[in-house]
UniProtKB/TrEMBL annotation:
Family to which the UniProt record says this protein belongs: Belongs to the HMG-CoA lyase family.
Protein name: Hydroxymethylglutaryl-CoA lyase
NCBIfam families in UniProt: PRK05692.1
Native organism taxonomy: Bacteria, Pseudomonadati, Bdellovibrionota, Bdellovibrionia, Bdellovibrionales
Metal-binding listed as a keyword: yes
A Gene Ontology molecular function term of the record: lyase activity
InterPro entries linked: Aldolase_TIM (IPR013785), HMGL (IPR043594), PYR_CT (IPR000891)
Species of origin: Bdellovibrio reynosensis
Length: 313
């Protein structure tokens, strides 16, 4: 569709991985069900990472199994694409055992963040992806790639554009079907984003590029618009604006799904998502994680035709 963007929902993975309250599988599956009922077609439901490193993601196999059971029962649409994060071969083997048909690998653009997040250098992380890609091919599993700290690192500061471009090329050569460009700690500005994507699309087709913006400094919507204007049509967002990486100090949530949907719908650009249903899901998630969600639209709701605003959380 010409006037449309694709939303990749991060709430159940990036959204929950940094939360103090760990949600049980039943609650996470109910969130998945309601997200798909709101029109979400691509969602990351968890991560096969070490539970010692990220205890919040324990139970991912159960989430995948229960989500597929709901698909079988006709509760979740058949075409829903579930994905999980995998850092290495062990994670990939767990992903295969779970029956999931898509995984995401992730590499950093700064050595210090790579070490803190996955305990190895960038080079080593790419070596770990080789068996992951071989297994993916054998089992016909789609692989998405993330590049983190593309605009700045919590330990090293600025990250050079040239390094990001080189790593994007390297990741693309591995055979990932899409690369998500991450502003892990929300430091980018719209000018930088425009320049970065203009350069990136010379080495990776723009259709295969996604934007993953954390909203730490309130720049995420502007950054999304900047990326959209240079042709990017896929954006990672998180219900309620939850998110952050436990190994990226200072990083707050991903841009809120509701805020992004509100912006695009207002511009006449389709997302396929039902904004009211997303807003309605906010209070339940806030109650479960025991704090209000950062999303702006999630708080005040959708403007009704008569100018009434729906109830607050
Ligand atoms: P390590 O401790 O160096 O691993 O962790 P190891 O290979 O030395 O193994 C130690 C133990 O971990 C062994 O078990 C392994 O079997 C086990 P033991 O013999 O001691 O019983 N192990 C695993 N267990 C479960 N799942 C696995 C796995 N691999 C080894 N996959 C490791 C290395 C990569 C596992 C660890 O550092 C890790 O799990 N890191 C994940 C950190 C993470 O999830 N960060 C957040 C996601 S990234 C992000 O948020 C950014 C993103 O959103 C984009 C953006 O915002 O820019 C994607
Ligand atoms: Mg992230």
């Amino acid at each position: 569709m010409k006037n449309a963007v694709t939303i990749v929902e991060m709430g159940l993975r990036d959204g929950l991985q940094n939360e103090k309250t760990v949600l049980d599988a039943e609650t996470r599956v109910e969130i998945a069900r309601r997200l798909t009922n709101a029109g979400v077609k691509r969602l990351e439901v968890g991560a096969f990472v070490s539970p010692k490193w990220v205890p919040q993601m324990a139970g991912t196999a159960e989430i995948v199994a229960q989500s597929f059971a709901l698909v079988k029962q006709g509760v979740i649409p058949k075409k829903t694409e579930f994905s999980v994060l995998v850092p290495n071969e062990k994670g990939m083997l767990d992903a295969i055992a779970s029956g999931v048909k898509e995984v995401a690998i992730f590499a950093a653009c700064s050595e210090s963040f790579s070490l803190k997040n996955i305990n190895c250098s960038i080079d080593e992380s790419f070596k770990r992806f080789e068996p992951v890609m071989a297994l993916a091919k054998k089992h016909k599993i789609k692989v998405r790639g993330y590049l983190s700290t593309c605009f700045g690192c919590p330990f090293e500061g600025k990250v050079s554009e040239a390094k990001v471009i080189k790593l994007a090329q390297r990741m693309y050569k591995l055979g990932v079907y899409e690369i998500s460009i991450g502003d892990t700690i929300g430091v980018a500005n719209a000018g930088q984003v425009e320049l970065m994507f203009k350069k990136l699309k010379k080495v990776v087709p723009v259709k295969k590029l996604a934007g993953h913006f954390h909203d730490t400094r309130g720049q995420a919507l502007a950054n999304i618009l900047a990326a959209y204007k240079v042709g990017v049509k896929i954006f990672d967002t998180s219900l309620g604006g939850l998110g952050g990486c436990p190994y990226a100090p200072g990083a707050t949530g991903n841009v809120a799904t509701e805020d992004v949907v509100y912006m695009f719908h207002g511009m006449g650009i389709k997302t396929g998502l039902d904004l009211s249903k997303l807003v309605d899901l906010n209070p339940m998630v806030a109650e479960k994680i025991q704090h209000p969600l950062p999303s702006k639209v999630g708080k005040v709701g959708v403007l009704k035709p008569l100018g009434k605003v729906s109830a607050q959380n």
